[in-house]
Amino acid sequence: MAKQLNVGMIGYGFMGRAHSNAYRMVTNFFDVPQEPVLKVICGLVEDEAKAFAKQWGYESHCTDWRQVIERDDIDVVDICVPNNVHAEIAIAAAEAGKMIICEKPLALDVAQARTMVEAVEKAGVATLVSFCYRRVPAVTLAKALIDEGRLGKIFHYRSVFLQDWTISAEVPQGGMATWRLDVKAAGSGVTGDLLAHCIDTAMWHNGPITRVNAMTETFIKERVHTETGKVEPVGIDDACTFFCRFENGSMGNFESTRYARGHKALYTFEINGEHASIRWDLHDLHRLEWFDHRDEGKLRGWRSIHVTDHGGDHPYMDHWWVPGLAIGYAEAFVHQVADFMTAVGKGEPCSPTFREALATQKVCEAVLESAKSGTWVEVPAD
Amino acid sequence: MAKQLNVGMIGYGFMGRAHSNAYRMVTNFFDVPQEPVLKVICGLVEDEAKAFAKQWGYESHCTDWRQVIERDDIDVVDICVPNNVHAEIAIAAAEAGKMIICEKPLALDVAQARTMVEAVEKAGVATLVSFCYRRVPAVTLAKALIDEGRLGKIFHYRSVFLQDWTISAEVPQGGMATWRLDVKAAGSGVTGDLLAHCIDTAMWHNGPITRVNAMTETFIKERVHTETGKVEPVGIDDACTFFCRFENGSMGNFESTRYARGHKALYTFEINGEHASIRWDLHDLHRLEWFDHRDEGKLRGWRSIHVTDHGGDHPYMDHWWVPGLAIGYAEAFVHQVADFMTAVGKGEPCSPTFREALATQKVCEAVLESAKSGTWVEVPAD
Amino acid sequence: MAKQLNVGMIGYGFMGRAHSNAYRMVTNFFDVPQEPVLKVICGLVEDEAKAFAKQWGYESHCTDWRQVIERDDIDVVDICVPNNVHAEIAIAAAEAGKMIICEKPLALDVAQARTMVEAVEKAGVATLVSFCYRRVPAVTLAKALIDEGRLGKIFHYRSVFLQDWTISAEVPQGGMATWRLDVKAAGSGVTGDLLAHCIDTAMWHNGPITRVNAMTETFIKERVHTETGKVEPVGIDDACTFFCRFENGSMGNFESTRYARGHKALYTFEINGEHASIRWDLHDLHRLEWFDHRDEGKLRGWRSIHVTDHGGDHPYMDHWWVPGLAIGYAEAFVHQVADFMTAVGKGEPCSPTFREALATQKVCEAVLESAKSGTWVEVPAD
Amino acid sequence: MAKQLNVGMIGYGFMGRAHSNAYRMVTNFFDVPQEPVLKVICGLVEDEAKAFAKQWGYESHCTDWRQVIERDDIDVVDICVPNNVHAEIAIAAAEAGKMIICEKPLALDVAQARTMVEAVEKAGVATLVSFCYRRVPAVTLAKALIDEGRLGKIFHYRSVFLQDWTISAEVPQGGMATWRLDVKAAGSGVTGDLLAHCIDTAMWHNGPITRVNAMTETFIKERVHTETGKVEPVGIDDACTFFCRFENGSMGNFESTRYARGHKALYTFEINGEHASIRWDLHDLHRLEWFDHRDEGKLRGWRSIHVTDHGGDHPYMDHWWVPGLAIGYAEAFVHQVADFMTAVGKGEPCSPTFREALATQKVCEAVLESAKSGTWVEVPAD
Fold first, then answer.
1. Could you tell me which chain B residue has the CA closest to the CA of A273?
2. Regarding beta strands B60-62 and B76-79, do their DSSP bridges make them parallel or antiparallel, or are they unpaired?
3. Per-residue pLDDT averaged across C66-78, rounded?
4. C48 CB-near residues (< 8 Å, 6+ apart)
């Protein structure tokens, strides 16, 4: 195995920064089998790509992603561009035999996602879709508690992702900063952007979702498009609520919106089992709430666990500072890269792979379909 | 106007106690036009009725509710019995010209509720349905803030009522303590018992609900019936989730269950408007959470308002202790009686009347119907 | 034993109301050996005393407290007047053989308190000083946990009582509403009014305080006196901070002020033991925070216990509503009366007696003395 | 000005990691005038120093700190070793004309600290003492609010730093992991280690502390010393409580301990002013609590500000991710390095300098002296 993992990064936006930071930090905190080397950053505007390369220490920059894939010295292609370009890049990367890390959601729709899964599986390359919240230590701890069977039979899973940044009708659609409001670039609104996170975590925690029933709304029907300068219809969902069934019989309730005043990124989940319940909230991501009915009666209460302990108690935390000192959002990406590199080193897959992300894409698509039809929609098993 | 308001109480369970306590406390704290006099308590078991009369200071007791209604000296009949007996008593009381306070939900179903509304409106008697949470000061304050237009256009209303007391399969159905699990006595499960509260408050805050889409579940299919001693099918809904549309265009999301470990009575609501948002939680009923986007940017945050101020700032609180000292659950019933007596004194209706409670009953019925049909159901306007 | 307990109440202010309410509610919720009968209310202004009698159901009223004590039919004298009148009334009541319930602090100073203790012990009458917070269920639960030895060796006890109602220089001193700012009526400021509560609870929880070191401040040096209409020097302490030693070797830290913006009645305590810690906050009085180091490592966290459970789990709560439904401030007085009557019925003392309140008075006096001398002051053992 | 800032790091423990991480991250997030270059790491054990160099990208390593100072190519010496070595290194570094970043507390005592201040001021080198919490965005925001005069006259400042890691008598003293329990290495216990942070922030927020009155305790009197293997007396303070006066007339209350079960690093402060109050808690370091009495009466409440906004609203946050996404503990060190480099670039001092840290050292020493004498001790003005 080579000593280095050569990275070709495509996209220098918010996610391009988060991924770059992770590559730079990972070897300082984790014992990974290779050292990531930032070989090339690719982005649309040359000056910006150049400046980004300088700021983050990339050896080179370019403006055409094909050049990244054509390079022999690139081991992993990291896709941090709008959703509508994921498929083309990923398929080309797979055909070139590159490992791929791709931002979520995997694709614009299920059909496209399937072509991506086929391509990477045919090529046999390692993949990872960046559902980063799985690797927030509190969320990882929740998974461990569930897997240990501590909750018993699960009755309920509920999750929301609430924001408030698009309430003003002055916010445009399209372009670098607001492509998430442009259906052509994003595929969908909160469903693909935010609920995809909730769904990925939920199925990781609680198994497959089998059927869904949804409602969506677009509160602001027209917005200026930054590319055309014209007022154009808004094609995305501003808000989406759905309930569902999991394969294990439990009931799910999900909601997402960008019209919830006071919430910048309120991603929460709660899971209620026969014996115990768990809650989490991204706004205070270093805490996990735990209620155990088996506790002595008079002392039962929700525990607020500060997930910063050492000695193996709290996932990933041995690698950071000392108990009581929190890590932030960015560290989840460090964990993601560390896990990916470790898995690659062992020749094992790293979750969530493209195939696993396809399952989330199916639920998203069923949700949007249900919102249109006004009735239950089955999530296809394959 | 007579100096006294003579009360005939029917039912000596949990609600019979809460209402009796309110009648006893109201004149100490509120300036009401009459003094309630506890004339008679009626309940099924004579010894228990007699003991209750002694404990609460009722002048007499009986075991047949018809005797209460036949008495000329009774002004108000207070119905605190299981849901399946509401209609018969209420209609008889109306025909006898009595004022009526009735526990929620109004009836077993809409058809029955309609007959009750017709009877009381024909008789022209004052009515009140005990959706008590409207008169928790924080909830009343929320209403005032909404009515003042502080939230602007409303986008979302979400509310849950979560409990965990029926998770054990050993809990029976039927009888004094567990009639809420017996569909014949209760009409429905969490929908009528818990969601009815959420729906009443929601429509009070945010206007009519026009259409609903629901999912229900009965996790434990059979339970021993205390009356027969036999294992019988469970006919109620253990859990119910629904989303809906309000007439004002906002989206609603509601959920209730008795299978959420760690929640004894977690009734919460949150309302998101263009300018501001509000949250409340029955577990800490003396607090209201408020977020105002018009606050100065760097100081924006959710405010936790301890709703105990005086000087007219916080509804009802001038009547109690001093700022900082909380009241509890029971005081909402005192407020309810005070408001009812004040309204009666002025010859005005006191919300929620039977007619207003019928609207909630319609939503509940639409919810149950939707859960069966698996699709949207319109809530009939009349 | 007589069926009735005849009450003579002296004082119709805030505390007169709280005590009256307790007598009226106690038999509805607790099985006490007698029924309290509100025989007479005594207060300075006849019209007000008369109105109070009407509102609360007192059989009679008067304006001279000596008349209450002279009556043969009074069993218990309840003293709810400013601190400077406690001693005279209590000693007279004791000499007349009355039981006495007295508001806190017991007296203006230790010398006065000693005369009161001597009088009641000589007379052999039952006494209770209304340190009401002991009987908030969460506080009582804390005591039980400590007594069970669950905390192990105690290292720290810290407690604050923060208010913000006297920050304005416009608030006067003296008179019905603001006698607490007049040193002649109150004896001291926050030390006797607020810290006395903290100290009473602390010594109940953690044993005797042996030595103290204190600092006080009077931020506003002069205020209009409502009786003279003139600006007069302020003799009370606006704020007081002290640290101390408990007999068991633990360290104490206490603070009180009426100049802490944002706190209406923030009475909190925290106790740290070898194995576990406890926290409580009057603003959310129905919750107790509990941390147990013996919990499994990865699940350790502060538990927020909603102290509303039944089945004997949570003190007093079986008598109220159902789990999850909170009681408020006023109910602590109901518990106090119930415990007092039960103890009297058994011929047992009810804590805190006058003698126990004397111990708190000694600490208060030592605190004020230390603030003057600027050094440690020993608390006299007797 | 050179393009690079050459760093010589002395110490590879917890702080050595935190500082190294900051140098590595700073240019990715902040526009600083130079690029830090990790030239050399110095530590006692060669293998460990070598491994650290590899992990963090230091160009070289050594085991004698004098070698670092002798190198011409070192611009800044960063001192991350136990307190007893600070002075010697710092003075030598100053004499060699190096800039100095030094971990807190500055020295073992005031006398030693004075020699350091003299040395660096004589040499005219830039200095910074790593009181890192000033640069947690919420803490920095608090400073800005105070400086804008929003709180009005200040009445109270209270602060605690509570931990629980030395409760077991099995924890040794001395050596790499537990030198903080060895008085020879640390100078004092919680006073220098934890209260120094509280004091630095407090004086930054609220001005000079003029006099103090303190109590300390050493709960465990003897511990095994890792160097001798023998049980030796413990010379540090395990817990320290003090109250004080600020020059502006406000009252201070401070406490620190390592015996508070349930608190890993509970560093909090609260400041109460005439108009507003502020609270903060390191366990949730991304939030600031704010209460403003000038808010409309019925809507007054403590605001929980999620200090993650952009657009200049929240200090440092424009440089990180998007609103709602928190940063952690480590980022405060990045801010510290960014501010230091920016100040150096402008030829300006960067707070807290050695001279400012000397003021904190004086308060610490007065605290320890007061704890011995049992009375007030004046903090010398110079």
1. B261
2. unpaired
3. 98
4. C12
Confidence of residue B126 (pLDDT cuts 50, 70, 90): very high
Closest CB to D325 among A322, A327, A329 = A329
Are A102 and A82 spatial neighbours (Cβ–Cβ below 8 Å)?
Answer: no
Q: What is the CATH number of domain B135-328+353-373?
A: 3.30.360.10
Is C286 an interface residue toward A (CB < 8 Å)?
A: no
For residue B6, the model assigns a pLDDT of: 98
Chain A: closest CA distance from residue C256 (Å): 28
Domain D134-327+354-373 is of which CATH architecture?
Answer: 2-Layer Sandwich (3.30)
- Nearest-CB residue to C251 (from D215, D273, D376): D215
- Cα gap B237→B193, rounded to integer Å: 10
The CA-CA-CA angle for residues B358, B364, B367, to 5°, reads 145
Mean pLDDT of chain B: 97
Residue B199: the pLDDT is: 98
pLDDT tens-digit series, residues C185-239: 999 999 999 999 999 999 999 999 999 999 999 999 999 999 999 999 999 999 9
Residue B11's pLDDT is: 97
Burial of C96 (0-12, 13-18, 19+ CB in 10 A): middle
Provide the ipTM: 0.96
* Domain over D4-132 is classified CATH 3.40.50.720: yes
- Share of chain D residues as helix, strand and coil, in percent rounded to the nearest 5: 40, 25, 35
Confidence (pLDDT) at A288? 98
Can you tell me the distance from the alpha carbon of D94 to that of D104, in angstroms, rounded to the nearest whole number?
17
For residue D311, the model assigns a pLDDT of: 86
Residue D329 and residue A326: Cβ atoms within 8 Å? Answer: yes
Say how far apart CA C284 and CA B324 lie, in whole Å.
10
Q: How far apart are CA D141 and CA D135, in angstroms?
A: 9
pLDDT at residue A177, as a whole number: 86
Give C84→chain D minimum CA distance, Å.
29
Domain ranges of chain C: 4-132, 134-327+358-373
Smallest CA–CA distance, residue D176 to chain A, in Å, is 15
Q: Is the peptide bond before C33 cis (omega within 30 degrees of 0)?
A: no
Q: Shortest CB distance from B301 goes to which of D298, D299, D306? A: D306
Considering the four listed CATH numbers 3.40.50.2000, 3.30.360.10, 3.30.1360.120, 3.30.40.10, the one that applies to the domain covering C134-327+358-373 is: 3.30.360.10
Query: In A316-353, where does DSSP find H-type helix?
Result: 331-346
- For chain A, say whether C297 makes contact (Cβ under 8 Å): yes
Tokens of C224: 């209009």
D134-327+354-373 shares the fold of D4-132: no
Confidence at residue B130, expressed as pLDDT on a 0 to 100 scale: 98
Nearest alpha-carbon partner for A130 in A57, A71, A80, A63: A80
What pLDDT is attached to residue A170? 95
According to the model, what pLDDT value does residue C194 have?
97
pLDDT digits (tens, 9 = 90+) for A195-209: 999 999 999 999 999
E strands along chain B, which residues? Answer: 4-10, 35-42, 60-62, 76-79, 99-102, 127-129, 154-162, 209-217, 222-224, 231-233, 239-246, 251-257, 266-273, 276-281, 287-292, 302-306, 377-378
What is the sign of the dihedral through the CA atoms of C182, C188, C190 and C195? negative
- Report CB contact under 8 Å: B303, D302: yes
CATH of domain A136-327+348-373: 3.30.360.10
Are C257 and D156 a contacting pair at CB < 8 A?
yes
pLDDT at B1: 76
pLDDT single digits (tens) D55-94: 999 999 999 999 999 999 999 999 999 999 999 999 999 9
Q: Which two tokens stand for residue D329?
A: 């503990």
